[in-house]
Amino acid sequence: MTATAEHSTPTGASARGAGPATASAAGTSAGPAPLAEFLGTVLRGLRALPPLDLELASAYGNVLAEDVATKAPLPAFDHAALDGYAARYEDLVASPGRPVRLRVVGDLGAASWRPVRLTPGTCFCVAAGAPLPATADVVVPATDTDQGMAAVEIHHAPKKGYGIRRAGQQLPEDAVLARAGSVVTPAMVAAFAASGIGRVVVRPSPRVAVLSTGDELVEAGRISQPGQVVDVNSYALTAAAAEAGAQAYRVGICDDDPEALRGLLADQTLRADAIVTTGGTGTGPGDMVRRVLTRRSVVFTELSVYPCATLGFGTLGGEEVPVICLPGDPGAALVGFEILARPVIQVLAGAEPVFRPSARAHLLETVNSPAGLREFRPAAVAERRGGGYTVQPLPGGPYTLSGLAACNGLMVLGERVTTAAAGSTVDVLLLDRKR
Amino acid sequence: MTATAEHSTPTGASARGAGPATASAAGTSAGPAPLAEFLGTVLRGLRALPPLDLELASAYGNVLAEDVATKAPLPAFDHAALDGYAARYEDLVASPGRPVRLRVVGDLGAASWRPVRLTPGTCFCVAAGAPLPATADVVVPATDTDQGMAAVEIHHAPKKGYGIRRAGQQLPEDAVLARAGSVVTPAMVAAFAASGIGRVVVRPSPRVAVLSTGDELVEAGRISQPGQVVDVNSYALTAAAAEAGAQAYRVGICDDDPEALRGLLADQTLRADAIVTTGGTGTGPGDMVRRVLTRRSVVFTELSVYPCATLGFGTLGGEEVPVICLPGDPGAALVGFEILARPVIQVLAGAEPVFRPSARAHLLETVNSPAGLREFRPAAVAERRGGGYTVQPLPGGPYTLSGLAACNGLMVLGERVTTAAAGSTVDVLLLDRKR
Questions:
Q1: Is the pLDDT of residue B297 over 90?
Q2: Domain shared by A213 and A334, yes or no
Q3: Which residues contact A59 (CB under 8 A, 6 or more apart)?
Q4: d(Cα A72, Cα A60) in Å, to the nearest integer?
Q5: How many separate domains does chain A show?
Q6: Dihedral sign of CA atoms A11, A16, A19, A24 in order
Q7: Which range marks the domain in which residue B97 is found?
Q8: Does B435 have pLDDT greater than 90?
Q9: Which of A63, A56, A53, A55 is nearest to A178 (CA)?
Q10: CB A194, CB B224: distance < 8 Å
Q11: Average pLDDT over every residue of A394-411
Q12: How confident is the model at residue A14 (pLDDT cuts 50, 70, 90)?
């Protein structure tokens, strides 16, 4: 699959090495850590899930764990490309200026298997896909003939080789059709089948468990009121994990009870490849998730990022299942998911690239952004018919849920940006691309 | 969801009305029919599947059957946007120039439900999400205070209203959050949950059965040889149907046996919302699908389209299940799927827009195209950092399977185009966009 957008990383991170930032290592400095270093550290510590072997019928949408190469030349044998008459070119040009008449010695379909050979002055009536008779070197389209049954008159002789697909003409044996890390597309499935491949080695979709924490939370379908706030995040982040390619399931709501959280996490480390929690990542007395998990191996890092200043990451259990802790505010949780959880899922899935595609876009309206923080600001991106993108801040504020529901991109406003003026060019992450 | 690319229809068709073409109605004229009319006729005759009611947890990825509106104002009640101290603004500015000290009369978390009220000179310590005490009109961030427990000193007074989210500030009750026809995104799930919505009315994913026909066909995993050709199409088109949002299943191979085909189709009309066949659409003696289905209500139309000159469409059974007949050549079948089957699936799914997004792109290499035919030519599209697209013809030929596997767009070269020069601008359908 050819990339359609540049996969620079306006998150400021590189999955493979240190980002452009210069400050101290994530989680150890006094000030907030730059996202680049934090993310680099997290992602470098992860491995893709072990591969599995799938039948071709189940391959679509999975990430290839290894390069896939042809098992036979493509096409595998010489055949007719179209319906017509397989002939010897020299018979067609033997008597220039006079109509060519050939004896039709048989019909060949795609199911024909008996080797046949043309003798001078004869031809076979062939269907598209039929194996080519030996010594035939042209297929005359039926429409250029009188379509005779016993004998055929050729109105117009095509070029030598016309209407023929030769064995190996498209690809030799052992040619790479698709690279490890790419997602299997319908056309790849076609190319795999055609070149003898019946099974592919892929990474499984990571199983991602999503849970939200908070005594105030209630299930969706009710209207929030003081003390009873609808659990928005576990629904939305389960969807976000599915969108990222995970096999996502909603564990649901966990009260602010350390024992209950420990139990839930112990259960989930047995069945999940990654766990996403939301809520309780602050430093206040109500921030139970942080208190419980910092006693395990989870590190909560203050980042120079807006709107998710704190993100937690670590691994749990003997299997070292990655745990990602996102803030409780739904806007911050969704942005935090994009920044941290989605790349983690991509690495587990063995997918390349790890980051969303990005583009440069013409900003339609001046926006302000907090100093010292890299802001990921939901916005509406549009393509212009003449080429290029525009980006429009959302009416009603970027971090409102209605704004998020309408957005299809995240503007990335760097640490030093306090104002981005209308007419200037900004980076945007494109949320509606497959890769 | 804001559109990210223009949804013009370089297929030449409009789902709602006649296309720009001028020739005679599809299937009835002597010459090949323009795609626009054929597609217009097909799509106008279809209805979206009956809707169903889903729990929010299952809503992601489905197409909304009706507009979704808030069931409560968003937010539903006044609350603190951040951790800090909820206060009366007039207390903060009562004595300009002197440090402000307030008595902390209690702690409020997101789970607090008891209505409380501020008296002059007091404040509540609040967590983000906590309901706002009556008469409080500002939340001072904890970081702008000495973070006292019994009393707190305010270092810096924010503006009146800071740190507060008022009920209805984002959206009033009964405001539209998402339109019918759009696909539910993670952020929509968040907005739905937050505004009291626990169920949504969506269209089911169309169940699409895919079968290939031909005596020569064998299952994938073998190498094609004369008389035994691997069934590429039913694997690839099942994947393509899944990509189009269908619940796709591979029926598999049907021999060129009219009775077997009739039986298979009768079975599938009971369980599928649409059926895709490939192979046998020509007019030769081996073209069994065409012979069998033209006796039913399926019409085979010769189109001024390259590379799929013949497409079949009709409905079968009492339920009038749409049947789409694609050519047997894998390249033509995949392009035919894009042209006809994908829009049909989108209409059944109730999705808008029906067509792939398209863009104008700078052609990097001169290509030739057959006169009188609208060509859909697989190509590699790339975005340029400066904005706009380039499109590169595929090495080794556009309709090779290896070429298709590498493509991410279809160049659309109109009926009058015989040469498109390097440097000119052409339309491309973008195959790697979600909508």
A1: no
A2: yes
A3: A184, A189, A192, A200, A202, B239
A4: 21
A5: 4
A6: positive
A7: 79-165
A8: no
A9: A63
A10: yes
A11: 83
A12: very low
Q: Which of A2, A193, A233 sits opposite B408 (nearest CB)?
A: A2
* CATH number (domain holding residue A100): 2.170.190.11
Q: Considering only CB atoms, which chain B residues are within 8 Å of A285? A: 107
CA distance A141 to B23: 26
Indicate the helix (H) or strand (E) that contains A125.
strand A122-126
Residues A312 and A335 in one domain: yes
Assign residue B267 the CATH number of its domain: 3.40.980.10
Say if the Cβ atoms of A198 and B219 lie within 8 Å.
yes
Kindly state whether residues B179 and B70 are assigned to the same domain: yes
Q: Cα(B294)–Cα(B285) distance, rounded to whole angstroms? A: 14
CA dihedral (B243, B244, B249, B255) positive or negative: negative
User: What is each CA distance from B228 to A4, A75, A127, A129, B232, in whole angstroms?
Assistant: 37, 13, 15, 11, 12
How far apart CA A152 and CA A137 sit, in angstroms, is 17
Share of chain A above pLDDT 90, in %: 75
Q: How many CA atoms within 13 Å lie on the side-chain side of B158?
A: 20
Flag whether B131 is in a domain. Answer: yes
The residue to which tokens 């420990």 are assigned:
A262
* In a domain? residue A29: no
Give the tens place of pLDDT for each residue, B301-340. Answer: 999 999 888 999 999 998 899 999 999 989 899 999 999 9
* Residues pairing with B152 in the sheet: B102
Average pLDDT over residues B406-415: 92
Statement to judge: residues B373 and B421 lie in one domain: yes
Mean pLDDT, range A19-30, rounded to an integer: 40
Q: Hey, CA dihedral for B403, B408, B409, B410, is it positive or negative?
A: positive
Give the DSSP per-residue string, A266-283: HHHHHH-SEEEEES--SS
- For chain A, percent of residues with pLDDT exceeding 70: 91
Other Cβ atoms within 10 Å of A421 Cβ, number: 10
Q: How far is CA A187 from CA A59, B205, B337, B404, B407, in A?
A: 12, 22, 11, 6, 8
Among A residues 162-181, those touching chain B with beta carbons less than 8 Å apart: 170-171, 175, 177-178
**Pair of tokens at residue A76:** 């595998």
Closest by alpha carbon to B156, among B216, B104, B84?
B84
Amino acid, res. A45: G
Check if the beta carbon of residue A175 is closer than 8 Å to that of residue A128.
no
- Tell me: pLDDT of A240 over 80: yes
The yes-or-no verdict on residue B115 having pLDDT over 90 is yes
- B235, B296: one domain: yes
Q: Is the link from the previous residue into B307 a cis peptide, with omega within 30 of 0?
A: yes
C-beta of residue B434 within 8 angstroms of C-beta of residue A434:
yes
Range in B30-34, B178-182, B237-241 the model is least confident about: B30-34
- Stretch B138-167: mean pLDDT: 94
Tell me: do A178 and A303 sit in the same domain.
no
| Closest chain A CA to residue B239 | A186
Choose one of B103, B136, B165: the last residue of a domain: B165
| Same domain (yes/no): B214, B333 | yes
Is residue A26 scored above 50 in pLDDT?
Answer: no
Cβ–Cβ below 8 Å for A77 and B226: yes
Q: Is residue A25 very low, low, confident or very high in pLDDT (cuts 50, 70, 90)?
A: very low
Span B240-286, pLDDT tens digits:
999 999 999 999 999 999 999 999 999 999 999 999 999 988 877 77
Task: Report helix angle B233-243 to A186-194, nearest 10.
Answer: 170
CATH of the domain at B184: 3.90.105.10
Task: Give the closest-approach CA distance of A318 to chain B in angstroms.
Answer: 30
Locate the chain A residue with the closest alpha carbon to B251: A57
Window 286-315 of B: residues touching A by CB (8 A cutoff) are: 286
Is the same domain home to B236 and B341? yes
To the nearest whole number, what is the mean pLDDT of chain A? 89
